[in-house]
Design brief:
CATH superfamily of the largest domain: Ribonuclease H-like superfamily/Ribonuclease H
Number of domains: 3
Number of helices: 17
Shape: flat
Oligomer: single chain
Largest sheet: 6 strands, mixed
CATH architecture of the largest domain: 2-Layer Sandwich
Helix content: 40-55%
Order of helices and strands: EHEEEHEHEHHHHHHHHHHHHHH
CATH topology of the largest domain: Nucleotidyltransferase, domain 5
Length: 356
């Protein structure tokens, strides 16, 4: 698969000129790169476009007007792999709202493939090993290195051919309508903003055993770290790792405050002040480790859940699909408690398969 060297678009004149070329093609392969590993405020750093005769890299870090680009792309079938991240990045970075989407990740799962990562699919269908050297690259870096450019191009280079192969298999298996509905659901989900619970966000992995003042210290440390990360525009883990937050919470409650050696200067002073304030909080203001309130399922609900799971597993085995594709366990648990809500929990094709 040989193409000319990729076109790099960094100004509005080039983007507008190239949009005339984009109008000639449908479908269009798309991918994006962000910089969440290198900053606090994740931003869209690169847009990759794959066309049959050309690969294009668009630099959204430049002040580009994406109105014409978005209008054209919304009228085409956009091929993505794992569309949720890319659609969210495009919505935040360029205000793009998609029309028809073909997600090769969803297609691979519905075909029944076990390995559904892009590299695995390219190896399966094209016998090509994709390099992974730039997986954790800083995509806000300029200029892009040759290795980064190669990595970025590979993310769209095979998508159009891959989509054609997967579409053939989906139609041959009679699962094309399942796939269309699954893509539509994924697009709707990507268009929604996820709200974070302020009472849960600071309860980092590994903190389940903390109680009382330890939780008060952890909460204060988490908010200190978040503020420091925002001010420096660095990922939170670069300020202090989760395990360090937990260890410091425990040691501070035990009266042995040892500030991390990697925290210096004014940041260290602010950390010491936050710790002191948290340790002086009265017990009435300590957060409580409240477990999720879940009513114990009734015998009828347990029986319904068992029946649903057995039916789901039989259907999945017959179709040679992962059971979670037919219906995730969490969905079955909700249906066992709220059978009247099944229409909002499962897609139409899933309900049909399960006779619901």
């Amino acid at each position: 698969m040989t193409k000319p060297y990729p076109l790099l678009i960094t100004n509005n004149e080039s983007l507008d000129d190239w949009c005339g070329t984009l109008e000639k093609y449908d479908p269009v392969a798309v991918d994006t790169e962000g910089d969440s590993l290198h900053c606090y405020f994740e931003k869209l750093c690169l847009i990759q476009i794959g066309l049959p005769e050309q690969d294009v890299l668009i630099d959204p870090l430049e002040p580009l007007n994406f109105s014409r680009f978005n209008a054209i792309l919304a009228q085409r079938r956009v091929i993505l792999h794992g569309c949720d991240f890319d659609l969210r990045m495009l919505r935040r970075g360029t205000k793009f709202a998609p029309g028809e989407v073909f997600d090769t990740y969803l297609a691979a799962r519905l075909v029944g493939l076990k390995e559904v990562g892009l590299a695995s699919l390219v190896k399966e269908f094209f016998e090509i090993e994709l390099p992974k050297s730039s997986q954790k690259a800083n995509w806000a870096r300029r200029p892009l290195t040759p290795a980064m450019i190669e990595y970025a191009i590979n993310d769209t280079l095979y998508l159009i051919d891959l989509a054609e192969r997967l579409a053939e298999e989906l139609r041959a298996k009679g699962r094309w309508e399942w796939f269309e509905e699954s893509c539509q659901k994924a697009v709707l989900a990507a268009g929604e903003d996820r709200e974070k619970d302020p009472e849960r966000i600071w309860k980092v992995p590994g903190s389940a055993a903390l109680r009382g003042r330890e939780l008060a210290v952890l909460r204060a440390l988490w908010h200190w770290r978040d503020a420091e990360a925002q001010a420096a525009d660095r990922p939170s883990f670069q300020i202090l790792r989760n395990e360090e937050l937990i260890a410091l919470s425990k040691s501070a409650d035990a009266g042995a405050v040892n500030l991390p050696p990697g925290v210096h200067g004014l940041r260290r002073k602010r950390l010491a002040a936050v710790l002191q304030e948290a340790l002086l909080l009265p017990e009435a203001e300590w957060p409580q480790r409240v477990r999720s309130v879940r009513n114990r399922p009734t015998d009828e609900q347990e029986q319904r859940m068992e029946q649903l799971k057995n039916r789901r597993d039989r259907v999945a085995e017959g179709l040679q699909l992962d059971p979670g594709v037919v219906a995730p366990r969490q969905a079955l648990e909700r249906i066992s408690r709220e059978p009247e809500a099944v229409d909002s929990i499962l897609m139409r094709w899933q309900r049909q398969l399960l006779g619901l």
